Amino acid sequence: MRQAILALGHQILKESCKDLSPELQQPEQLITDMWETMQAADGCGLAAPQIGQPIKLFIVDSQSIYENLDETGRATYFSKGDTGIKETFINAKIINYSEQYWEDEEGCLSIPKLFQPVSRPWQITIDYYNANLEHQVRTFSGTTARIIQHEYDHTRGVLYIDHLKPLTKKIIASKLKKIKKGRVSTSYPIKYQSNNKL
């Protein structure tokens, strides 16, 4: 079932999330809801706190991005042999970052209609459990690594705008205020802190 996505201003988006525990009821349903919610919003990633669940769980779809790029785009944004992923990450921890950084524009379903360039490591290694609760340690690069880092940040209470320079934050301050006050329309259900507008 599709869920409303929490907008900038909700305290839960700034909280450090807890591990997904065996006691959680119906994690499969939560994961299914997240995929449905993300796809309906035309997103490429979604973290559990964005739908009000402060747990270390997020999903990533870089495969759709890869499929929509031409050969030049694929060579720019993906490493050779990488065709993207559709993956669930549970209790993830990034255990290694490459020294090589690259900058690309990022957006967020919780911060609608705002995009800013963010610098991140090109490659990461991450320790996590997949949707079948199988332990994984995998290395990702390019756009796939970027989306993972963005969603991983969500589970630590960090938003992509937190990576921006102070001057950039000042420049976009009025736009952020509009989002917090619910003055931005979206094609997907979104829940604002100020007036609980859906």
For the sheet with most strands, the description reads: 5 strands, antiparallel
How much helicity do the residues have? 25-40%
Number of domains: 1
CATH top level assignment: Alpha Beta
Classified in CATH, the superfamily is Peptide deformylase
* Strand adjacency order, main sheet: 2-3-4-7-8
| Basic shape | globular
Number of E-type strands: 9
Structural class: alpha+beta
Radius of gyration: 16 Å
- What is the chain-wise order of helices and strands? EHEEHHEEEEEHHHE
Q: What do we call the CATH topology?
A: Peptide Deformylase
> Terminal Cα separation, in Å?
15 Å
Provide the low-confidence segments as ranges. none
CATH architectural type: Alpha-Beta Complex
Q: pLDDT average, as an integer?
A: 94
- Give me the number of helical elements: 6
Enzyme class: hydrolase
GO molecular function: metal ion binding; peptide deformylase activity
Keywords: Hydrolase, Iron, Metal-binding, Protein biosynthesis
Function: Removes the formyl group from the N-terminal Met of newly synthesized proteins. Requires at least a dipeptide for an efficient rate of reaction. N-terminal L-methionine is a prerequisite for activity but the enzyme has broad specificity at other positions.
